[in-house]
Design brief:
The complex is a heterodimer of chains A (about 250) and B (about 270). Chain A has 8 helices and 15 strands. A 6-stranded mixed sheet of chain A has the order 5-7-9-11-14-15, with no helix packed on it. Chain A has a 5-stranded mixed sheet with strand order 6-8-10-12-13, with no helix packed on it. In chain A, strand 2, helix 4 and strand 3 form a beta-alpha-beta unit. In chain A, helix 2 packs parallel to helix 4. With about 270 residues, chain B is α/β, with parallel strands linked by helices. Chain B contains 13 helices and 8 strands. In chain B, strands 3-4-2-5-1-6-7-8 form an 8-stranded mixed sheet, with helices on both faces. In chain B, strand 3 and strand 4 form a beta hairpin. The longest helix of chain B is centred in the N-terminal third of the chain and has 14 residues. Chain B is globular. Classes of the chains: A alpha/beta (about 250), B alpha/beta (about 270). At the A-B interface, loops of A face helix 7 of B.
């Protein structure tokens, strides 16, 4: 069998480039014990959001220049606490050198990823650990949206990981609905809605009756001390354009 | 079949204890065997509203800690044959309550053949409130027509849907009822107070009663008589209606309009 024929019949893998949701951990210290404790408490407070989440370590805030041994301790602390460090965030040449020494990829910052060309992507893909990349694949193959049919009451949080969130009831004041994809609320949105929770800048928020306290897309947010008259109680969508959030009514006026 | 009903609200001072006392009395007057338990350990009030404060020897915490039997701690009401009060302890704190202890007391009451057990919840969302709602079959969420009370009730409804035994065991959910208290039709008309419809729209559950604002409530508390026993009061009629709805009767809401002034008061401008 020729090499060409075997590839044509049955390729051993398919490469796909696409934005990858990746939490960034900007460390301000190399104290592994402190980082370990903090990660544990974060996971305890929001296990859906943080447990076994792929993170990329950002060393940009550190005051002293780290050496590979320090970073290894930090990576180990993060992993032991339950999050999965998979890469270093792009920085200067020191970071590049460290990454090579630690055998980790360097990725551009999450929000910058989609803006830049996809040249950084191939580096990120192979290092992604099995579990997160499996769920990402699920997503790229079109996972169903997460459905929620009960009212989301004040103090409750609903988070749809790697997918859209569809709420068919009201979201109360002081409640929080989040998704890595889009957030749809087919009721009154009186609480907070966060779309693109892990940096997807094309995510949007849609709601049937707009009374939101806060809307955020890929970390860009706006609070509503007073709801603009033309939006109050109306069907509204929000999207991100550049660094600005835009809001508009949709449907017939 | 015993039904366990929690009277809760999140916010303090909205009328939980007044409601517990009146609903319990209303059910008992209709021949049901009713126990009403004060879960507000350390801030015991129900005994005052029920007028039995001088007869409290043993309390809920004593029973839970096996310092007395349930029979010794249950206080029989002097007005209604089938009504019993289990007072809170004034000297302990809320940590004295345990999930197992509460379960055991409820089981004993069920074995005694009670038709209804009302759990008067403390304010807040801490342990006392959590345990008061944990075993509930139904919940009466007491709310005043103002924004902070409505938001706290929304929070409580969220907890009822997630932190009760029914929620944890994935059984049919706790049946939720909304009871508006301190409702003033005049102030609603003036736009100073949220209307029944506003509150209902935000919380999205069925309204079991609207209790008008009235000085009768304070008078009844001072006298140690549940306000439902005052036959001349609109508050009592509104609570009676709520009891009927609780027992499954459909009836229209009353006291949503300002009372019409009588001939004489119109004549003299009163």
């Amino acid at each position: 069998m020729t090499k060409a024929a075997s590839i044509a019949r049955d390729p051993p893998f398919v490469i796909r480039f696409g934005p990858v949701g990746l939490a960034q951990m900007r460390v301000t210290t190399l104290d592994a014990a402190a980082i370990h404790a903090e990660v544990l408490s974060r996971i305890a407070s929001a296990p859906q959001l943080f447990e076994r989440t792929a993170v990329c370590l950002d060393l940009g805030e550190l005051e002293q220049v780290p050496v590979a041994r320090d970073i290894r301790l930090v990576l180990d602390a993060v992993k032991r606490a339950g999050m999965l460090p998979v890469a270093l965030a792009r920085g200067n040449e020191i970071v590049d050198a460290l990454a090579r020494e630690l055998d980790l990829p360097v990725v551009a910052q999450v929000r910058a990823v989609s803006k830049q060309s996809a040249e950084m992507q191939p580096k990120a893909e192979p290092a992604a650990p099995a579990k997160p990349s499996a769920t990402m694949d699920l997503d790229s193959q079109g996972a169903l949206a997460q459905l929620h049919h009960q009212p989301v009451r004040s103090g409750q949080r609903v988070y749809a990981r790697n997918r859209d969130l569809v709420v068919t009831a009201a979201v109360g004041a002081g409640a929080e609905v989040m998704a890595d994809g889009c957030v749809h609320v087919y009721g009154s949105l009186r609480g907070r809605a966060l779309a693109g929770a892990r940096g997807e800048i094309t995510a949007r928020v849609f709601c049937h009756e707009f009374n939101a306290e806060l809307v955020s897309i890929a970390g860009v947010f706006r609070v509503f001390e007073t709801i603009p008259k033309e939006l109050a109680g109306k069907p509204v969508q929000a999207w991100l354009s550049g660094d600005d959030l835009h809001f508009a009514r949709f449907g017939s006026p | 079949m015993t039904e366990i009903i929690v009277v809760t609200s999140g916010k303090g001072g909205v009328g939980k204890t007044t409601t517990s006392a009146s609903i319990a009395s209303g059910l008992a007057r209709r021949g049901k065997k009713v126990a009403v338990i004060d879960f507000d350990i350390g801030l015991r009030n129900l005994d005052l509203i029920m007028g039995c404060e001088r007869r409290v020897v043993y309390d809920f915490v004593n029973v839970i800690q096996n310092e007395s039997t349930l029979k010794q701690a249950l206080i029989k009401d002097k007005r209604i044959e089938t009504l019993y009060v289990l007072a809170a302890s004034q000297t302990r704190d809320k940590d004295a309550l345990t999930v197992e202890g509460v379960r055991r007391v409820l089981d004993e009451l069920i074995a005694e053949g009670f038709d209804y057990i009302l759990c008067d919840s403390p304010a807040g969302i801490e342990k006392g409130a959590h345990l008061a709602m944990y075993y509930a079959d139904r919940a009466i969420v007491v709310v005043n027509p103002e924004v902070s009370s409505v938001r706290d009730s929304d929070r409580i409804l969220g907890l009822l849907a997630s932190k009760t035994q029914r929620a944890e065991k994935d059984e049919t959910k706790v049946k939720e009822h909304l009871l508006l208290t301190r409702y003033s039709p005049k102030r609603v008309a003036a736009g100073e107070m949220m209307s029944v419809d506003d509150v209902k729209e935000i919380l999205g559950i069925e309204v079991i009663g609207v209790i008008p604002e009235s000085p009768d409530v304070l008078a009844a508390s001072n006298a140690g008589t549940p306000v439902i026993m005052n036959a001349d009061s609109d508050v009592a009629r509104a609570y009676e209606d709520a009891v009927s709805r609780l027992m499954g009767d459909a009836m229209p809401l009353r006291f949503l309009e300002e009372p019409k002034k009588g001939f004489f008061s119109r004549l003299f401008g009163g």
